């Protein structure tokens, strides 16, 4: 599959602080790529470099096969969208007026506004002034704006950080629908559940480097301790090893009608991150 | 390089709506009109009096309003949104300048009407006023890009407004302080000089040097603005 982003030995140093030491990864066209790391690990710095908002100190980064310096060209800007934690909305204007501006800038028909507002569950609020919206609603407007022109590549920086579970689910459905239409999504988050729910592949960023990169399934399999937990009718929990020995023990318990539930002991992505980096995602 | 009037118009429309709801900044545009009404009642009809109002309009509307519009875009992080859109530098700067330009021309028109200023050669004066407004808008844009917030911009723009709006007053001290002759090259002084020549019958050819000096200021300020804008595109 074609790579839409390629990053080689990318480094960024601010004054005397190293934000990125040497980062290598690629994002395949059409995938949802999760970029995970604790606060301050360099996720936003990477997005800024990949969208031409920041120059790297060292290394190479290409988007759509072009060096990131070319992304400043108007023709490339139509091809990607960015959602960052800074809202960048006009507070005195309504939601509709904010989106109308971007429809005109991206040559998108105004009819698209209702479509994206429906997608983020804000259609009834479109005449409301942005300054009167809650943080969660503002975040949804920013997302709606990023979706307006159906970009080929969408960068999302903590897209659901201020949202309640209902709206988070709405956003997930919207992102999946967008991805199904062919948009590649670069999702920066420290929410493990979000990454596991949405992403095809995940990269763990820590100490300015990619520590792990794989599909959530493979990561879990690789870091699994190959045991199962059996819950018995007397509320006791028994951990059994995988393989013949464990199977025989489970068979005996089942034969005696002792088993209530059986769970495979897969680590969570959070567990894997702690195991690899020795620190928590927060 | 493409230039889309649709994008320029979109930014202008957005600015117009936003500006009309921003009383703190929009109320400023009435100051030159109040001064014009005051001068009219006082019967002050000299070229210096007319151009005090016109230069004040440049300072308060073209520079101050423009500076606040740009500084607010920076402060609220909306300028970055525009920069990341397909709009080009010229479309963004053009769109962001259009409101200040239209307001400046309207206020100058009504101020001139109030003080009953009728230039002997309206064509030449109109060219000079349009050219001067480009300079003052460029100055506002530059200051807006250099400051971090509307508050900071309002503070830094004041000395500029004073120098360029009331700079003609320093000419009275040139005999005492010959160094002040440098002020002769300020665009506001050049504009007054041009208007004075026009009133005694000068045509386009007679004021080319005045127009040339104002145009040079425009070129310098726009070059600086574009350089600073491009730097602001990258953190």
Summarize the structure.
Chain A is 34% helix and 29% strand.
Compile the SSE list and pairings.
The complex is a heterodimer of chains A (282) and B (235).
Chain A: E1 3-14, E2 17-28, E3 32-36, H1 43-50, E4 58-63, E5 66-67, H2 74-77, E6 80-83, H3 95-106, H4 111-119, H5 135-147, E7 153-157, H6 165-180, E8 184-189, H7 192-198, E9 201-206, E10 209-214, H8 216-222, E11 227-232, E12 237-241, H9 244-255, E13 259-264, H10 269-277
Parallel strand pairs in A: 3-8, 3-9, 6-7, 7-8
Antiparallel strand pairs in A: 1-2, 1-4, 4-5, 9-10, 11-12, 11-13
Helix pairs in contact in A: 4-5
Chain B: H1 5-20, H2 23-26, H3 30-42, H4 47-75, H5 78-83, H6 89-114, H7 122-146, H8 150-166, H9 187-199, H10 208-232
Question: Could you name the key traits of this structure?
Answer:
heterodimer, A: 282 residues, alpha/beta, 2 domains, six-stranded mixed β-sheet, four-stranded antiparallel β-sheet, B: 235 residues, mainly alpha, 10 helices, globular
